[in-house]
Each structure stands twice: as C-alpha cells, then as structure tokens.
C-alpha cells in the first residue's frame, strides 16, 4: 500500500527561547486547532540545550561595560543551525528577531510573513543577543534576517512579541480562520479602524442598538459602518488618514501650480479609460487645458499623492449649496495612475477628501459615467448611494452620502 506523504503545513514556525513555556498559548484556540489539522507546524526549542557548560549559561557581561548581561553567540549559533539542519539543503527559513529597535510590525508585514513557508523566531532576553549571531545567520547560514519591533515600548524579552506576531501571521494563513471574509474589513487591513459591533439583547441595561443595524437596509448599514470607521479613525488614528494614507511610501499634500503639468497628464490618462468604457469623448476632464488645471488648483482643494516623487493620484473638492440651501461637498477628478490602481489609493484619497471637509458639510456627492462600473462599485463600498431620478448630465450617474455630525 503506497504511503500517503504527510501533508506539508502551509506554514512552519520554529521558536528558540530560554522560556519555552512562554509559548504555550500557541497550543490553544485557532492556532492550536490549525496545528492539530496540520495547516500549521509550530516547534519551540530551548536555547539552553545548546549551552554545554556546567551552568548551561546563555549570557555573559557586555563588552564595553554597562548594565545587564548579553546573550552569548555560541548557543544561538548552534540552536539556529540545529533548526535549519532539519530541512532540505535548499530550504532556508526567514529569521525574525524581535527587538525594540526593529522595524515596526504591521498588518502589511504580517501579510508578507504569511506568504513565507517557514519562519524562525529568535527570542532574546537580558540586554539582547550578541550582534554577531545575526551576521552569522545572514552571511554563513544564508538566512533573510528581519529585526522587528512589536511597538514603541520596552518588554523584558522577545517571547511576548513572538506570541503576537505568530498569531497575527498564522491567522492570515488560508484555513486557520473559519470565514476568511471576516479578514477583509478588519482594522489595519485597509487603513481604517473597525466599526462598532453589537449583538443580542436589544436593549441591554437600557442601552439600545443603533437603529440602522436593525433596518435590514444593507446600503444604509454599509454607509453607517463606513462612517463609523472614518469617524473612529479620524478620532483615534488620524495618522492612518493623513498624510501617507497608511502607505509609508506615499506622500500626500495639497497641490501647487507646479503639480499642474503632471496632474494634467494623469487626468488625461485616467479619463481615456472612462471615455472608452462610456463610449463618449465629451467628458470635461478630457477637455481641460493645462491652464484650466492651474486655475482649478487655485480654485479648489486639490490633493496630490506622490510615490517616490511620481504623481500617482489626485482628488479635488469644492463646496456647493444644494437646492435646500445645505452645504454639499462635491468630490471630483478622483484619479489614480492605471498601474497604481487596485491598492486602495482611490478609496483613501476619497476618505481624505471627505475627512477634510468642515462639520458644516452634511452631504458628499460625486458624478461618474453610467457605465463606469468599477468607480460605482468603489463609491458604493464607501457608502455612497445612487441619486434617484434623471442625472444632470445624460449618460452619467450621481452618487451621494450623508455625513454624520462630528464626522
Ligand atoms: C526582544 C531583550 C529586553 C530590550 C533592555 C529591556 C519587541 N516592542 C518591543 N519592546 N521590547 C521588545 C524586546 C525586548 C527585548 C528583547 C524584544 C530581548 N529585550 C531588553 C533592550 C533594553 N532590555 C520588543 N519586539
């Protein structure tokens, strides 16, 4: 009978530490189940097994003096070599070394690490690990080594950080979380914090559940939840809304006349696809001259997004008075360079434009081609609804959403 080859885990994790029991929580809950199901393989190794002196010591006094002790290189080298030796000659794990001075651990990094087949985490203690261990791992063992920080505060060692990192990474591995759909609208997944959640009973201790959630009106619920996400993010994490829009490589600022030539070019490029999908050329953006763009930058709040100096996106807003006399924010010329689309930049520029408006603004509206499905889908997801009735301009649709007070 042919032996069924053991299913390779989607992710293998090795952890080296002097406190193996610290990692016991990885036996529990979804991570524990995923290990039992063979989706994840997690092994914890005691560094002291590689300390051979009578006291199995793993630390010594720091060269150059100073408080505390430093972890010795030899036990670490042996421990890492033993872990790496377990795999085939070509396989090499990615080594993650938690440290307060490391690169910030983010959801984006969690997504990146979740693509790796094999991760090794080195938990330091005392004042840290002799730096030559990392050089040895990179240069002699050929490992990609990342020093990563959980956050701007000081822990006593790397174990707590590894617990958090392994959980954040492992839950992104297919099959670990039951309904992957729930991963989509999470905080930090798309640059906005999550909306508030409620369950039975309603009311509870005299506190009611927001009515819209009981309405069954999914568009209204989506709009409310998006509003809540914007409001919370603006209140608690404005850094996520400005200016790099949660994307370290992006610079966003108000446009100046110097931006006009590139902006004119970007708009022409972006509205060509609108003209094609709507089979018409009488689209205002296609008929704007460079001077018109310069004039518009002066007349409207125009934001430009640059990545590595290149203008990759823009949005323009103006305030108009509706028939009822209320102030409405009109969002226009939202555009993202074709090669930069699909990364959430359009939605973030839209959120920035909305958030930039004063409290007096009660509605936000915009117009797009009736056949611009992709744009309409983005606006709907952002909580806009199609305005009923004939559009001002034939072949277009108008979308609007209400802003909550104090949004
Ligand atoms: C690894 C030793 C303790 C750190 C002297 C206190 C991560 N966000 C984070 N804060 N602290 C750590 C961390 C702390 C560690 C080790 C990670 C290994 N220590 C040291 C330097 C100052 N003691 C961390 N990730």
How many DSSP helices?
11
The CATH superfamily of the largest domain is known as SPOUT methyltransferase, trefoil knot domain
Q: Give the second-level CATH assignment, the architecture of the largest domain.
A: 3-Layer(aba) Sandwich
Written as H for each helix and E for each strand, in order along the chain, the element string is: EHEEEHEHEHEHHHEHHEEEHEHEE
Strand arrangement across the biggest beta sheet: 8-9-10-11-12-14-13
Evaluate the radius of gyration: 27 Å
In angstroms, what separates the terminal alpha carbons? 66 Å
What bound compounds does this protein have? Answer: ligand JD8
Tally the structural domains: 3
- What level of helicity do the residues show? 25-40%
Shape: elongated
Task: Indicate the CATH topology of the largest domain.
Answer: Alpha/beta knot
Number of strands: 14
Contiguous low-pLDDT stretches (5 residues minimum) are: none
Strand count, sense and barrel status of the largest sheet are: 7 strands, mixed
How much beta, percentage-wise? Answer: 15-25%
Mean pLDDT: 89
Please give the CATH class of the largest domain. Answer: Alpha Beta
Structural class: alpha/beta
GO cellular component, one term: cytosol
GO molecular function, one term: tRNA (guanine(37)-N1)-methyltransferase activity
EC number: 2.1.1.228
Enzyme class: transferase
